[in-house]
Design a protein that fits this description.
The structure is a single chain. By secondary structure, the protein is an alpha/beta fold. The protein contains four helices and seven strands, in the order ββαββαβαβαβ. The strands form two sheets. Strands 1-6-5-2-4 form a five-stranded parallel beta sheet, with helices on one face. A two-stranded antiparallel sheet has the order 3-7. 33% of the residues are buried.
């Protein structure tokens, strides 16, 4: 029930929560996303605006994305994880963008 489909992220704040080492090796990300360290979700969740939908994604949409979404929900945010992660996004033919240099861990 906390998973978001590819067509359900348009108005949401989108965060790439791939682990730091995985994100560092990656060249691309979902358009409009910003990377946040899933290990530090307690820190960055405090500055997210209340009332906004939040969607997080990891590589496959399993443990990292789901756990981060659950922690955000526990903090009172309307958070969901992207079903299938970035791999599912790519497999569905969705666009990716080059990772900006400023988005390095």
């Amino acid at each position: 029930p906390f998973g978001a489909g590819h067509d359900e992220i348009d108005d949401a704040l989108v965060f790439d929560v791939r682990r730091a080492g995985v994100f560092e090796q990656a060249c691309t990300m979902i358009p409009g996303a910003r990377w946040r360290n899933p290990a530090a979700v307690g820190d960055w969740s405090a500055v997210l605006p209340a009332g906004r939908d939040v969607v997080v994604y990891c590589v496959y949409g399993h443990e990292v994305g789901r756990a981060t979404a659950m922690r955000l929900r526990a903090a009172g945010l309307n958070a969901r994880y992207l079903r299938g992660g970035i791999d599912g996004w790519l497999a569905a033919g969705r666009p990716l963008v080059d990772k900006p240099a400023a988005q390095r861990p």
